[in-house]
Structure formats: C-alpha cells, structure tokens
C-alpha cells in the first residue's frame, strides 16, 4: 500500500525536483518526465510509460484511473460528545471554542479526560495510537465499551467547517458491533447524513499533519528504534514521497525487465534443445534465433509448420507421400462396368454388316430418287416388278430401319471410346512416389511396383477392364501401407518437434514483450539512479524549514537544559534509515538522543512534530495534545506554555492534562487560556465544568484587586478599567469567533474583521451584530450593569474608575456573562 500524500506539499516537492532535474544537463526529457511522474503517483508513472500505448507491454497498461480525492475541509472543533465509550458511560459533552486560542482540559487520572481525547482521535483518524501500538493493545481493544453503560455507544464531533458551517461527525456502534465495525457518518447543518467520513477529505491529511499527539505516541518515537522516528518524520514532512517514488520506479523497472530476463532464459535453453535435435526445422530455427535481431515472424512461421515449396525437404516429401491418393473403388468399379457393357454392345454387330447395310441404304436411296422421276416403270436392275408407290413405301421403311441400326452402332462406338478414356483417366490419376534421402519406407518399392503395373495398360477394351480389376487391389493395399508408414514417420517427427515449436512460440511472444519494454528499462534505470543520488539532498532540503522551526520550539522548551539542539538530518536508506540529531552539551558536540532525559526527549518530539501540525497547509485548524508534560520538569513546563501560547495565535490548541503544573504555569505566566475541568462520578458519569476562560479570568482578577485591602484605591482606579476592557473584549472576541466559524467563515477573514474593531463598543457590536459600526445602545440600556461596565471599559481607561471598585467588578461579571450567553 502506498503512503497517503498531501497535494500541496507534493506539488512543492515536485517543483523542487523539477528545478533540480532541469539543472541536470545529463538527463533527457523522457527521464525527467518519469522522475516527476514517479513523485506524483503510480498511475501517473504508468501513464508516462504508456504514452505510446502500442509499444508498451500489456502489464504496463493500466486503464484504471484513480478517483480524484476530496479536497480536505478546514475546520475548528466545536464539541466532543461521548456515550458508552471507554471511561464515559452516560452521554458527556466537552464544549470547545471553535477559534484560535488555548483550551486546557484538566482532570485527575481516571476522570474520563483521556476518553474524550481517544474518542476524538478515533472519530478523526479511525484508530487510536494507544490501541494500535501499545504492547497491551489487546487489553485496550477488549475494554473499549464502557462497563457501566455499554449502550448506546457513540461519538459526536462538532465541527465549524470553513465554507460549510456547523458539521457533525458521528460514530455509532450497534449493540453487538466490534470496535472496528462502527457506523460512521457526516452531517452538515440542514443536509442529510452522508455515510462514512470521506467527504471531509481528511484521510491523507490526518497522517501527514498529525493534529492529535499523545504522550504514548511521542514517547514511542524514540523507544521503537531509529527507523520509527525516521518514518514518522518522513510521513509528516511528505518525505515518504521520495521513498515512494523510488519504489514506484523500482517496481516499474522490475516489470519492464521481466520480459527481457524471461526471454533470455528461454532462448538459452532453446538454443541447446535446437542444437540437439536432428529435425531440419531445428537447424533452420537455430540459424534464425542466433542472429543479433532475429526475424520473429520467420521464426513463428517455422514453428507453426507453414510450408510452401519442395525446398522444405524431408518433411515436404513425407507430407506429399502421406497425401497420395488413388481413385476410389466405387469410381474404378463403375468405370469398369461401363467399359465392359460398351464392349459387349459393340460385339453384337460387326463392322462388315455395318458396311453392307450402309451400301444397301445408299443403293435404295438412289432407287428412290429414280422412282420419283420414273413412276411405275419396271426395276432397271432386275426387270421384275414395278417401281410404284407400294414399292416406294416398302423401300422407305427398309431404309429407315437401316439408318437407325447404323446410327446406334456409331453411338455405341463413341460410348466405348468414352468409357475407355474414363478408365484411362482414372489410371493416370495415380502418382508415383520417389525415395526420400535419410528416410527408409519399407513399403515404398512395393507401391512403386504396383504403380508400374497399374499404368502398363493393354489396348483392348475388355483386357483393359480386366487389367484394372486385377491390379487395383494390389495398388490400394500398397498405397495404404505406404501412407501409414509416411504418416507414422511424420507423427514421430512432429511429436519430437512439438515441444521445440511450443518453446519457439513462447520465446517469440516473450521476445516481442522484451523488445517493447527494452527502451523503458534504460530510462527507468537512469531515473532511479538520479533519484537515489539526489534523495539525501531532497530529504534534507525538505526538512530544513521544519528543522529551523523545531530549533525555535526547542529553544523555548529547553528552559535550563544544558542541551543545545543542532542540525537535524535524515540519513540512510532501507533498514539503515535513521534521524541524525546533533546537539551540544555545554558546548561539547554530542548525539542528542544519548544525552537527553526522558522529559527532554518528549520536548524534542514536540519540537519535531508541532511545526507540521501547525503548517499553513494543514486543514486542521486545531492541535490536540494529550498529556504532553507529564515527563517534563517545572522549568520546561513554562517553556511548553510559551510554545502553545504562540501556536494558539493561529490555531485552536487543546491540551489534555492531569498535571496541575500546566494550569498553574498558565496562571503564573498570564497566558490567555480557557480551562475545563473533567470529573468522574459513580457509574462512569463524567461532567465537564468551565473552570475559567480568558474573559472570566480577567473578571476574577478584577475581583481580586477590588477586594484586596493592600491595594491602594488610586491603584484600583487606574487598573480596574483596563481589566474591564480586557474582559469585555475577550468575551466579545470569543463570541464573535465562535459565531463566525460556526457559519463556515474563513479564519483569515474573521481575523481581518476583528482587527477593525479598535474600541470596546466596536468589539461588542461585532460579537452581537457582526458589524463593528452597528448600534448596540439598546443592548447596553437593557441592563444597568452593561451601561456601567461599558462606560468603565471605555472612558474609564483614560479617566480612571470613579465609582466603587467592588461594584465595578460585579457589573463586569454580569456583563461578561451576558456577552458569553450570546454565543
């Protein structure tokens, strides 16, 4: 399975490779095309190889075109709702603020806090690192349903999607469903549910940007061997695209080489077999296949036995003998019977009788002519009788009878000649057979003698019939034996030739494939060699911006550490791949992994992977960290808070933690954050309380100052108006951002609008009306507290507080609460 990829990052990498390839004068255009296609995907590489589809082996043609991936949607988290899953029984909701900012979800171990994190990770990615990679994963997977309320078992993730507004991701498990048999769906506000989560387009992005990072995952990066960290970095940086490209080139190169490898193996064995054969075709085939570029059509014709002339030699002669034929017994017998019948008919009348009849008929014809001119006279020959009409009628009858006998006799003579010619023609249809060099046919001479006797015919018709009748059986018997012998010899030769012919056909087929593929082998080899030689440069060039950002983060996290992070490089390939992390300990060079504590290693992991999670290309407007500080010492916790404070300027940062040091550090450093408290009651009942959010924290600070007797009144009058302004603006910002993101507004546009609100009324107008110039006088007038607080936050900042400090704090509290309720 190929790694998923981010199209934006991929295009950036393609651009870098294109520049490098264009700068290399040794690469031809075809090789450059293959390199770029390999980086883009298997289908693209195959398409590049199959540009000339008539010249590509069949296995290189892939008509399937991968469907276009859904463009990933940008989204903030609005809520996480869980029921019957892990440590949460009855439905519990984690409300979130869908905008940039920091939210800390705190709670003791076992409170159900991590169940929200795991539910979110499962809904977004379809899995959980904790289940997938822990050694006791089987235990985790067997206890995923809540023990107290296993049903209904469901997860709902509320999203504020850019361009689409409120969207819900749902995961439902029927009562008997296994962990990996959920029903998943996505529903946008006002639309029907769509099955699955593919419409979000997050399948690739969740692997590339890792928006959810847990303590277990960060620790596993260093515990599971050098290749694990390498692969993780390669994936989130899109560097696996280089390895994928090399693998694609290698796979296609292997495919293209296979026909030539197979053809070479076939021809080696075939040459040996042909040389050992005594078949004349084998010798001819061997001559053809030994040529540098064999004529494949000629070899094919030879293999399938195509023959046209006597030049084919022994086989031709054997086939000719096997095809010899003589007239059928029925034809011969019929001709003999006819001949004998005609001979008998002729024998019934002699030639002398025929001549006498002809002379008499001639004489009578003369007499009739005489009678027509001299009617009634006496016969001039004998003087007896009168040549009258009676005589004429009688003579005419005799003349007619004689003419009929003469005609019949002549017809019988013609039929006799025809019958003899027919039989002679049958005799002449019998062909002789010549001896075949190198082949002994035992019955050949017998057949030749029979043919000699057969064609030595007598002249007399009756004798001819007897001759044919006497010699036919011997001829037929001799021919049958000769043909059988020739066919047997042919069959024996064909049996020996058939395997060679099959081998020739197989070789021709494979050789054709090889000739089609050969041109691509060279290009693929060149492309792969170039890719390998430039891979290290590409990897580290791609890593450099992330490494710089990681160094910046480490600079904040290191807090009192004597380990200074140096260069970060990806080194090696295959089983030798690893991440080289250079460091200095008190100025002395050292390998980072060997000198860092467990807490420092977790800090380093965060430094390496937070930059990618915060990438501008990531569709996730949120970053979720589960228990990231449990191995850190107090000083590094402060550094961590500074890091997430910076991230929260552009990202919704959610940190799950059971460690009170995080909330304490946030308060001590004055970092604006919302803190939610998760508690667990009986029967896995989990509740979430809003411990403090930025606006409420300013309110608390206002009360603290107002109630503190040690703070001079003059100080209170100067400070409280500023806290009022900060609290109201923080509440307005929270409301405005939440409303905007729930409608699908883009973050950049939201921030631009907020920057236009330069006064407290403008900020409140944006929150309530969406327009900084909107009239909010009616809203202010609805409550005396609102009028007072807004006045203090406005003119009071310059003039100072004029009323009671504690009253001002109460007015501020009610005003902030009213604003937050407007969400």
UniProtKB/TrEMBL annotation:
Q: Which Gene3D superfamilies match?
A: P-loop containing nucleotide triphosphate hydrolases
Q: Which Pfam families match?
A: AAA_23
Domain of life where this protein originates:
Bacteria
Example GO biological process: double-strand break repair
Molecular-function GO terms, alphabetical = ATP hydrolysis activity
Assigned protein family: Belongs to the SMC family. SbcC subfamily.
Subunit structure comment from the entry? Heterodimer of SbcC and SbcD.
The molecule here is called: Nuclease SbcCD subunit C
